[in-house]
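Justification of computing resources. Each target in the renewal requires a structure prediction run like the one illustrated here; the chain below, 227 residues long, is used simply to show the kind of job we budget for.
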Amino acid sequence: MVLAGKVFLVRENSDMDVLAEKLKAFKVETENTVEEQDFKLISEIRDLSAGKGTLDGTFSFDTVFVVKHRDKTVPVPRTYEASFSFILLKDRLFLTVYDKKNRANNIANEMSKAVFMSLGQIVEARIDPETLRKFHEKNFENTKIIFFDDMDLPSISKLSLYGDSLGNTSLYSDYLTHGKLWYVVLKSAKTGYVMGVTRNCVVTGFSKMDMAEFSSFIKGEILPLIS
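Resulting structure tokens:
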């Protein structure tokens, strides 16, 4: 199963105990009417557990989607759950939400409001293009996919390369003179996992691994890259 996550940077560091208390208290209930049916939707944080410099938990939220059943549309409530980790590393506080990009963004915004009472305190983490290049070039021969953006070629916004040993091709060297690395799929030199990484810290695990291994990879190899 493919695993997905996104890393965010917390602009205002918070004491982990205070952070835990604020998260424990977070619960939002809203009323919503869909197809003339009333629903109570709940967002809350559950299963908090603290470790040395870490705080893990689950963000749970309800939504309603509409399905078509013969000639009728039927609203169906659903609860989504996403694991998350706050990690304190070298005096910087990171949040990783283990979900797809769009839901991870929404959850990060909700947690920013829950902890800091405003948006904008939990922001996208970024990896410098040169740092991303050096990271993938540690295992040049096992990079499978590369996307470039910020191109200086007229009418071209992105370019991509697919295949084996991409780092050794002349096209790779040429594309580097015209744009910046945006996304790479590579085999980690340390762990052997095949991972996808973007500059705004969307991480995808393509190898067989559990959530603990995925989280450990992000902590050990992605967080140190963040500028």
